[in-house]
Structure prediction request, 745 residues.
Amino acid sequence: MPSLEIRDLFVALAATPDKPIVKGLNLTIRTGEVHAIMGPNGTGKSTLSKAISGHPDYVITSGDVILDGKSILEMEPDERARAGLFLAFQYPSEIPGVSIANFLRAAVQARLAEGEELDATAYYKRLYSKMDMLKIDRKFTSRSVNEGFSGGEKKRCEILQMAMLEPTFALMDETDSGLDIDALRIVAEGVEAMRGDKLGVLLITHYQRLLDYIVPDFVHVMYDGRIVKSGDKTLALELEAKGYDWVKQELAAATA
Amino acid sequence: MKPPTDLLAEPGLDAPTHETTAVENPTVGIDQSAGDFTYDVKYEFDAGNGLNENVIRYISSVKKEADWILDFRLKAYQTFLAKPMPTHWATKDLENIDFNKIRYYLSQGTKPKRTWDEVPDDIKKTFERLGIPEQERKFLAGVEAQFDSEAAYSNVKDIVAKQGVIFCNSTEALREHPELFKKWFGKVIPTGDNKFSALNSAVFSGGSFIYVPKGVKVAMPLQAYFRINAENFGQFERTLIIADEGAEVTYMEGCTAPKFSTSTLHSAVVELVALKGAKIQYITVQNWANNVFNLVTKRAIAMEDAEVKWIDCNIGSRLTMKYPGVILKGRRARGEVISIALANDGQHQDTGAKMIHAADDTTSVIVAKSISVGQGRSTYRGVVHIPKHLKGCKNNTECDALLINTNSRTDTYPAIVVRGDTHAVQHEASVSKVSEDMIFYMQQRGLTEAQAMSLAVNGFVNDLVRQFPMEYSVELKRLIDLEMEGSVG
Prediction:
């Protein structure tokens, strides 16, 4: 069964490599599983997802990330993506002048063997069926990627890309932020529809709200660059009721 | 090789019988650029290297020109000598042009063939490799294929010829349609406009002549393809397009040259005349090798209710200086310039537009987008002129620059002179950089860094490219992809 293993990972900003943000994080995700990482602001959740996908602003100072038994740290971001890693961005970039249809087409084409041509008819058929699932208007395909999109549209566009690219592991960075309740439901339903034994998901979120719709198999609490507590879905409810201070106090008591 | 002076010393010679000269051209290996190749070609007529009056007489006698044309050429030569280089405002790189090394005329004869079968094999294979005959069959109303100084092939489809449309090269036009040609020749761009228009006027050869009769609308585009084959060569085509009242025509030109170690000069003069209510669309997609000095003067005159649109894509070359213009001479005339320039390492694209309003209620639009890659430099230089005595003129200018690398450069020099208080003028300019986050976003979806760059650049020009005929937008996208391949890493 494919797995994504994060081993004793230390991550810092490339500009300040001696100041780690992620400090010795361990986590293994298998396909078929949904993990949620929760935690207060500034604890390194987004840094973790960007570092795993190879963002040039971050540097992994020690530890390893293993995808299907192979370290991905030497791979370019696009190689990691083609190896099955997908990042749903908290703040997706705008690409002026490039339509969603053309962008996704290029991304799908990039996954084909050299010399193999994309079947345009089959591509559009699949694109439209995924759009129907996410209740996205057909006109959407001719709009420039993320340009002038509302927060909800951007997040739906991320899920559409995920549905089209069929990753093995998806890192979803605060996909619930900026969504109203209807948009949240649509996005969550989209993720639920993709859920299955071919996909492993890491959800990064502040709030329990998203987990009402995408019920996780595992919940981890991240604090000061590490996972400090793990449990099942009830942990998320406990956090919602007691707040993060509860974890901090527990942690302080344990280390005292 | 005999220098032309020897030939002209023979008395009573009007058709030089130059010895056939084999020209040694290094066959350059094919790399990523589709136009970068040469085949050995035997030239029948060769004016040698360097420029003097005898070279001009030689060119004129090969073409069997009327006396007035030779006079025109010789006068232009004096103007060329007298005019200074425009280095004071543009670039010192112009001083590196060695006019004594350039070969001013090379051809296999002045009569173009009407079928591809008749075109000599050594020339035909070049155009076949560039895909010209295939494009002609698919979507063009007529094609002229110029190889160095003269058209090797020129043909217009019967359906268009029957409408009275004339499409030939300037050599033929001067022989067969002097009355049409002479009326507008050198009237839109006078010889003394600049040093290079004077040079062209002295040694011009080839280029297209088009006349579209009153009310005739040519449905498919006419195309010319300009190919430089020889090293140290100067190509000086002269194009004149006349759309008579209510006529409509679209003309497209493509240009390529192989990469030589020495520089090549391309210095064309293009004059467009849109009479009352006529519409001319002129599309250029040039992909010169990076040692070509491309110094071209292009201008149109638009009479009452006429419309002229220049679509100008400049990729490649060492230095391009080109500012297509429209003189808005008649009421409600409309001029538009859509300009795309891509400057890569070692290249300078100095491009823009000129809009000279000379009648009431005239409208001009300039949209210029430039991309600077690596140490490439792009410059927008524009003139908009609206004098005080006119009423109701409009201009909208938009220039956007995209910088790919931190050492890329862009400059904007818009000169807008508007007098009077009934005009509406708008100018917008922007400079943007492809952000690291945008590239990472695309890479995260599986595109390589070069593919991501390419997509970003194509996106930047997409709103302009959509106005192109399909075949040309595909070609431009392919050229951008090639340019961006080496831009990262």
Notes: Confidence is low (pLDDT under 50) at residues 1-32 of chain B. The first helix of chain B runs from residue 4 to 9. The CA atoms of residues 83 and 194 of chain B lie 7 Å apart. The interface with chain A takes residues 435-438, 440-449, 451-452, 455-456, 458-463 of chain B (CB under 8 Å).
